Amino acid sequence: MRILVTGGAGFIGSAVARLLVLERGATVLVVDKLTYAGDRRSIHDCEGKHGFQFLEADICDTARMRAAMAEFQPDAVMHLAAESHVDRSITGAADFIQTNINGTFSMLEAARGYHDGLEGDAKARFRFHHISTDEVFGSLGETGAFSETTAYDPRSPYSASKAASDHLVRAWHETYGLPVLVTNCSNNYGPYHFPEKLIPLIILNALDGKPLPVYGDGSNIRDWLHVEDHARALVSVVEHGKVGETYCIGGRAERRNLQVVQTICDLLDQRRPGAAPRRELIRFVADRPGHDQRYAIDCSKIERELGWRQKQSFETGIAATIDWYLANEWWWRPLREKKYSGERLGLVTEK
Ligand code: NAD
């Protein structure tokens, strides 16, 4: 397979690129603008490997996307490039509207022109796979779970921009016959996760003896999935998913934010005992505006239809993630030094 991966220097895109290049022997072109969240060091394992190429470009540049597709001749586009941090979308939504909505429009137009020009098997094979989030569905109460038929109800600038992009993708299928696939996944964690996101922020602040900011009372619930399990789900969808369908992907691992933070503290205390238990570093901070209370995913469709199963439980995955951060300071330390430890976003103000 020849696969064009947008956002392949980011957290999930780099896991997809590694899986495709190192395990599947696919030919991969990563297209990435290298924003603050993109880092070529995240795909260092792929660099120099047979069939791996990198293009530094903005997905909003439709002419460049058209040219990239014409030259690379992909069998599939896996579209992950996005602005992805909810807190940043609240302090400044412009980049989210530009990349997540206009950028997806640009990718769809480039893919439409490319697909229209294909013939025979190449045309039948082509897929445009749009990678999205469960946040488009809004917030759940105590019970229930999101599924492929849940109505959209986005509540943050980030989730609204992703919802808009999902609608565009479906419209390009219905209107122009573009062979699309859409996936909506729950919260990911794992290696190469940018240090501003909850799990790496807590691991690294706890290691450095800094305050561990927890929004509100820490009762918000997220469903966590290891990024390598998400990457395997995405590859199975692009290979075997039914055109025009949506697949929800989740970890069946609902945890309160406070529980996640406490688990990280306890695992770090075992690995690197400090002067005092790290739970003492926890600080409850003013809640995020419009903070969704609970997310949960019913992933029975992808399990039933494509036979996907996650391999890592939250307990084994989080322990492995902590060990990865302990072993890979070369990756995260320079990013932390650029001041992404949470202060910039006001996250360490006590409530
Ligand atoms: P990320 O922020 O780690 O990576 C995004 C990548 O996109 C970066 O490499 C960045 O440089 C690149 N990018 C941004 N704007 C670009 C542009 N205009 N042109 C080209 N490249 C650009 O994000 P992530 O966590 O890896 O998320 C990837 C995708 O998965 C996103 O679409 C996100 O909405 C979705 N998703 C994320 C999660 C999660 O928990 N992180 C869960 C479900 C879905």
Bound molecules: nicotinamide-adenine-dinucleotide
Uncertain ranges: 341-351
Radius of gyration: 20 Å
User: How many runs of DSSP E, i.e. beta strands?
Assistant: 12
Based on the model shown, name its key terms.
351 residues, alpha/beta, Rossmann fold, seven-stranded parallel sheet, disordered C terminus, binds nicotinamide-adenine-dinucleotide, lyase, NAD
Give a summary of the structure in a few sentences.
The protein is of the alpha/beta class and 351 residues long. The protein is built from 12 helices and 12 strands.
Task: Summarize the topology.
Elements: E1 2-6, H1 11-23, E2 27-32, E3 52-56, H2 62-72, E4 76-79, H3 86-91, H4 94-117, H5 120-125, E5 127-133, H6 157-176, E6 180-185, E7 187-189, H7 198-207, E8 212-215, E9 221-226, H8 227-240, E10 246-249, E11 254-256, H9 257-271, E12 282-285, H10 300-306, H11 314-327, H12 329-337
Parallel strand pairs: 1-2, 1-4, 2-3, 4-5, 5-6, 6-10, 7-9, 8-12
Antiparallel strand pairs: 9-11
Helix pairs in contact: 1-8, 2-4, 4-6, 7-9
Bound molecules: nicotinamide-adenine-dinucleotide.
Nicotinamide-adenine-dinucleotide binds next to helix 1, helix 4, strand 5 and strand 7.
